[in-house]
Amino acid sequence: MRARTIGLVLLGLGAFLLVGALMMSLVLAPTLVRLPLDQQSTVISVDEDARYLDRSELEEARGTVIVNLLVEGDPGADEANDDVAVWHYGTSITDADGELIVDPSENVNCLDRTNGEAVECAARTAEIEGLTLTFPFDTQKRDYQVWNGNIGAPVTAGYAGEDTVEGVDVYRFEVSIPATEIDRTEVPGRLAASDEPSVTADVVYSNERTILVEPVSGKIVSSVENPRIVLKNPNGATGATILAATFGPDDETLARNAEDAADTRSQIRLVGTILPWVLGVLGVLALVAGAVLAAFAPRAADSTPPRHAVDRDEERPVPTAAAN
């Protein structure tokens, strides 16, 4: 009787574990694996031998250029919810003295918390399409559209193979932006290779960028790019260089990014794969053990006396009192 009871308990436990595994995989994991609403990060990139236009002297210079990217989530925004994150981010590019080389940029973007793509929302300050600050969870070996604020359009980040950074496996994506006119501005003629006192010059931008992405988390471990912004006069001649540099994370930042991506990857695998599998296997084992015990456990003996014993009692003569 005891073994049969244990078997029935194991059957119930097995069913519970299987349902738990299914719920964790289909409901809990997708709920937890989302971009954070309260994102906080700062990325600083330095090129100590960049070329740039000194805005105060209106002359080309060579030296240290610093890019500072600040990202801050806004969980209290009206559009922030289970599916959408609202992130503020801004970029400043300065020389070693803190003087701006190009105008700073500030944006508010709403991101799909699962695939990382920009979505429509009232909080967004500009038209943005595609990916911006992260890749999607479970990044695939395919091309993605990545937003470039300088040209105001999405560009193709082409899948280019696999790599390893600080022991973390990553996918490599390549972005190539050919020379593109992004603005027109009035400048002294000498800056635009012109003999005129002043000319309206085209501001032309190009870039080559390599992005390394940890595919499970979608986190960008490294982004190395080579922006080039130059002036061109109305005749097409190239004038002064506004910016020509190589930006990317230093060794310390690269190691920190790789560690952060690895930690996030482990958490995602724990919730989305390891725990559901463990619960599922334990559930199956419990079901099998419970079924065996319930089926083959001996039943309790029947307390009803045998039929033939009852019959013999009924056939036995009833003693009577002796006659006087």
Architecture overview:
There is one protein chain. The protein is of the alpha+beta class and 324 residues long. Helix content is 27%, strand content 38%. It is built from 3 helices and 11 strands. Strands 1, 2, 3, 4, 5, 6, 7, 8, 9, 10 and 11 form an 11-stranded antiparallel β-sheet that branches. A hairpin with a 5-residue loop joins strand 10 and strand 11. Helix 1 runs antiparallel to helix 2. The radius of gyration is 35 Å and the shape is elongated.
Describe the structure concisely for a colleague.
The chain is built from three helices and eleven strands, in the order H-E-E-E-E-E-E-E-E-E-E-E-H-H.
Q: Low-confidence stretches at least 5 residues in length (pLDDT < 50)?
A: none
Strand elements, count: 11
Helix count, DSSP H or I runs of 4 or more residues: 3
Order of helices and strands: HEEEEEEEEEEEHH
Taking all Cα atoms into account, the compactness measure Rg is 35 Å
Strand content: 35-45%
Task: List the defining traits of the structure above.
alpha+beta; 3 helices
What's the helix and strand layout?
Layout (H helix, E strand, L loop, with lengths): L1 H31 L7 E15 L4 E15 L10 E12 L9 E8 L31 E5 L4 E13 L2 E21 L9 E16 L6 E6 L2 E5 L5 E7 L6 H46 L10 H9 L9
Antiparallel strand pairs: 1-2, 1-11, 2-3, 3-4, 5-6, 6-7, 7-8, 8-9, 8-10, 10-11
